[in-house]
Specification:
Beta Polymerase, domain 2, 2 domains, five-stranded mixed β-sheet, 10 helices, 5 strands, 52% helix, 12% strand
Length: 254
């Protein structure tokens, strides 16, 4: 198996390395890969208890596929794609201010790179990581409206349905931070890192986000949520607002 024998493996402990070798052999046995790049917290040396390997498998066939498997008790997520699908994914994620694919390519470890197929993909990833996010004031106001509505709903039902209020509170924190990142012209971090990343950017906003999510009493959570709203969208609920007019196709009702 020439491809396997030529691989330069990352510096990992024996358990992770054995798993990665098993997973890579499975890829080569089941696909005809032109490139393989592996990323994730295990690769960067900061694994959690349930960390997995994220592996992009690049091939020249006309399909893409997502697969989850376990090797040596370690979970793997495989993203099987032709190069054109990866480029499209990088561009689409840029528009939604999420850059997971670009980060995976820019921080990953190359296992296989036939004819330099990964070189252009990594270059594209780095271009989009360095681009300024797109910004539109109307979009910002729509995000503000969404956050305000969720907050208002959380307050409205806290007396009669604490469980549902907690769901709205969690959604409110996400929406408030979505607005904050958008207004600051920043890309959204991975959800796992959202509060930690926010604390680095704006400690006070990050602190109140954490206080909301870590508080137990509903009244305390709501109080922290209002303070978070004061620091971000500067309202606790309903406010006057209107969207732009949007053309629609008028169809005959039968």
């Amino acid at each position: 198996m020439p491809d396997f024998d030529c691989i330069v493996w990352p510096d990992l402990n024996e358990r992770y390395l054995d798993a990665l070798k098993e997973g890579t052999k499975w890829i080569i046995d089941n696909f005809n890969p032109s490139g393989i790049i592996v990323s994730g917290t295990i690769i960067i040396g900061k694994p959690d208890i349930s960390s997995d390997f994220d592996v992009f498998v690049i091939h020249n066939n006309n399909f893409r596929q997502r697969i989850q498997k376990i090797f040596n008790s370690i979970p793997f997520e495989f993203f099987v794609n032709p190069p054109s699908s990866i480029i499209k994914n990088i561009k689409d994620e840029y528009k939604t201010r999420m850059q997971c694919t670009s980060h995976m390519f820019s921080t990953g470890h190359i296992l296989l790179n036939k004819e330099g197929i990964l070189d252009d993909l990594i270059a594209n990833a780095e271009i989009y990581l360095n681009k300024q996010p797109e910004y539109n004031e109307k979009v910002a106001e729509t995000l503000r409206y969404k956050a305000a509505v969720l907050l208002e709903d959380a307050i409205d039902i806290k007396e009669r349905d604490v469980g549902m209020s907690n769901i709205f509170i969690s959604d409110s924190v996400q929406a408030l931070l979505d607005w904050f990142y958008y207004k600051e012209h920043l890309f959204l971090p991975r959800k796992k890192n959202l509060i930690v990343n926010t604390e680095r950017i704006n400690y006070e906003i990050g602190k109140y986000s954490r206080n909301v999510m870590e508080s137990v009493q509903i009244e305390e959570k709501i109080d922290y949520l209002k303070r978070l709203a004061d620091l971000t969208i500067m309202t606790h609920g309903f406010f006057e607002w209107e969207s732009e007019r949007e053309e629609v196709e008028i169809k005959e009702i039968i």
